[in-house]
Amino acid sequence: DYSLDQLNTWAEDLEDKLEDLEEVNKVEIRGVPKKELRISLDLPKMEAREISFQDVASAVQSENVSVSGGEVLLDGLRR
Length: 79
Prior knowledge:
Elements: H1 4-19, H2 43-48, H3 53-61, E1 73-74, E2 77-78
Antiparallel strand pairs: 1-2
C-alpha cells in the first residue's frame, strides 16, 4: 500500500514526463485531495507587532505554498 503523498509524488513525476512528449498537449492529475492549511491570526498581537495580512501571506508564499485570497473571520463575521 502507498500513502496519498507517495501516489501524488509519483503522479506528478509521471505528469512531468508525459508533458515533455511532443504528442501530449496537456496532462491533468485528478482525484487527489488538495492539502489545505488554515491559519488563525490574533489581530491584537499582529497590531502590536505591526504585522499585516500581507506579511503573513508573503511568509507563507516564501515557503512555496499556494495561497488563495481566503476569508477573514473578524468580530464573528466572515469577510
